[in-house]
UniProtKB/TrEMBL annotation:
Swiss-Prot/TrEMBL keywords: Coiled coil
Domain C4-type zinc ribbon: 198-230
Keyword Coiled coil in record: yes
Domain of life: Bacteria
Lineage, opening ranks: Bacteria, Pseudomonadati, Campylobacterota, Epsilonproteobacteria, Campylobacterales
Pfam entry (one): Zn_ribbon_9
Protein name: C4-type zinc ribbon domain-containing protein
Organism: Hydrogenimonas cancrithermarum
Domain CT398-like coiled coil hairpin: 12-184
InterPro entries per the UniProt record, alphabetical: CT398_CC_hairpin, Oxidative_Scav/Glycosyltrans, Zf-RING_7
Chain coiled-coil ranges: 18-170
Amino acid sequence: MNKHLEELIELSKIDKAIDAFEPRIQEARAKLAEVEEQESAVEREILQLEEDIKDAELKKAKNDLHIQELIDKLEANKKKGAEAKTEKEIKALQLEEEIAKEQLDFANEEIERLENLIETRKAEIETKKAELEAIMEKSALLKEEIEKELAEIEKEKQELFKKKQELVSKMSQKILAFYDKIRRWAKNTAVVPVRKQACMGCFMKINDKTYAEVIKGEEITNCPHCGRILYLETEKEEANAE
């Protein structure tokens, strides 16, 4: 096989291996991001529960103040009742007293409801804090695993980059430029095998003359349909592909 073609095949495989790291990196980071989002979601829920408690406590304080105002009003009405001289004044005071008592009952019921709400929210916060702690423990373990995984990936990448650099330094710059030109649009299918007389880049059947040139492997041969660089797979490569 042509030396330049052998180098292009090897370079293509290295580039493909390097590019294959990115999905692994993204997957690892996505796992961590998912756990971090769970953590943030629970933190947001806790903050909302705390806001609910603050709001309920504020409403409770307003009702406490309103109750005191109603009590003061009832006390004042008692004094006014003792001093009332006409039936009309007495009835007006009685009506005010009834309304004040109704408002007092409502305010007390509202305070009871708010107190129950506060207790419920406090219990929910404790549950969420326990949930958050569990998620944070999981996140810490996962982060450690992912950091190890990313470090291993980086090590493998550097080894491949070194291998690529060594190969590129020996290659013809003209051949390398030709390969890079095709790779800009073909990505990791710049150099592809031929199977059953078809280009494995565009999957079009190549003519007998081109196929014969690929079999010989004496020159760099391009697919007449898509322009990719073609080569004939070894039996081992073909068996692995199948």
